[in-house]
Design brief:
The chain is mainly beta. The chain is built from one helix and 13 strands; from the N terminus they run βββαββββββββββ.
Length: 223
Amino acid sequence: MNAQCDAQDSGILVNWIEVDRTVQPPTQTPTGRSSCMYPGEPPVAPVEGGAAVAEEEAPIVITLEEFQKQPVLAATIISQPSNFGLRNAHSNIFAEAQEQEFAFDFHDAAIVLKARPVSYQWNYGDGTSATTPVPGGPVGGSAFDTQTPTSHQYASTGDFDLTLTTFFAGDYSVDGGPFQPVAGEAAVVSEPHLMSIWRTKGHSVSENCIENPTGIGCEPPTR
């Protein structure tokens, strides 16, 4: 029986395929025939041809590749104090990342995708790197030489381009259904952050720079 289901009668259109189990593995061939299935009733297979079974539509899956196509905002890198640190001292560096939500159509289905940051891969620009499960955060005071979960000690002076890759986990819903996880994590790279690292010297003096402009520590800073 060929049929087009009327939305008002709650019928669901199913397509039929023929299964040949005389060969291994069994083959499946579309019959080109369809019929209506109604709630509470099993579908009635067409009598023409061999044994037929209903062909189920493949579930819609949002892959990591599709996740990576979404415009996930990168984390913002912040240093304390801004862009400055001292050699051999802890420089407090942290990230600001946010959970995000996207809505789009995929294979004629309405998708809602949620992205949440789960880990942070730091490349400090001096040949060292680290991965942390937390973004870190600001500390009180000047923050010079204050160790934090995301701070870093530079062993030499100079300018360093610090980069950050934030990994986001994703959960998606198809046509308002339950959320399910994306297999894998999306990697989102932030803009480089300049770290200018300087050295310090300690001296005991009896005059300040107003009293003795050429005294120790009154000259322009050098690295």
